[in-house]
Amino acid sequence: MSKELTEDIRSAVQAIVQDEKIWCARAFRLANELDVSPAVIGGAADELGVHLARCQLGLFGYDERKRIVEPAAEVSSELEQAIQEGLILGRLPCAVAWSIARRFGISKMQVSSAAEKLEIRLSQCQLGAF
Q1: Calpha distance 27→107 (Å, rounded)
Q2: S-S: 68 plus which of 6, 58, 73, 123, CB 3.0-4.6 Å?
Q3: Are strands 21-23 and 51-53 parallel, antiparallel or unpaired?
Q4: What are the beta bridge partners of residue 18?
Q5: CB of 13 closer than 8 Å to CB of 30
Q6: Quick one: 50 and 81 in the same domain?
Q7: Residue 61, domain member (yes or no)
Q8: What is the DSSP string of 72-110?
Q9: Taking every pair of C-alpha atoms in the chain, what is the biggest distance, in angstroms?
Q10: pTM over 0.85
């Protein structure tokens, strides 16, 4: 158990649980509201036996399909370069994917789709899902 994981955090996480799941966007909002890292919220979800759902990159939590991300039809050379420059040990950390999305003014899912097209796996979920 993390020292940061207080009863207040556990209660706040429990309050956003719906159907034994927490949508990732809600988990990030809660982390921001409580001024804790997303990993603390993910840890509380784990401790409570709650699954994360609706990954903002489309990688997990979409019921029967599990993941919804599809490879992009094409990837601009600028976006490909940004993704390649962001790799750590051959994978793109989720936080870097989010940063690329902000930089290019595109959705997180578009970055994930570009990574799929380039056959690059994402890693280091900020909530600790993978």
Answers
A1: 18
A2: 58
A3: parallel
A4: 21
A5: yes
A6: no
A7: no
A8: -S---HHHHHHHHHH-BTTBEEHHHHHHHHHHHT--HHH
A9: 48
A10: yes
C-alpha separations of 98 from 30, 92, 111 in Å: 18, 10, 8
Q: How far apart are CA 49 and CA 63, in angstroms?
A: 17
pLDDT in tens, 31-46: 999 999 999 999 999 9
Q: Specify if 72 maps to a domain.
A: no
Q: Which domain holds residue 116?
A: 77-123
User: Residue 23: what residue type?
Assistant: W
Identity of the residue numbered 29? R
Question: What digits encode the pLDDT tens for the residues 64-115?
Answer: 878 999 999 999 999 999 999 999 999 999 999 999 999 999 999 999 999 9
Nearest to 39 by CA among 124, 128, 123: 128
CA distance 21 to 27: 10
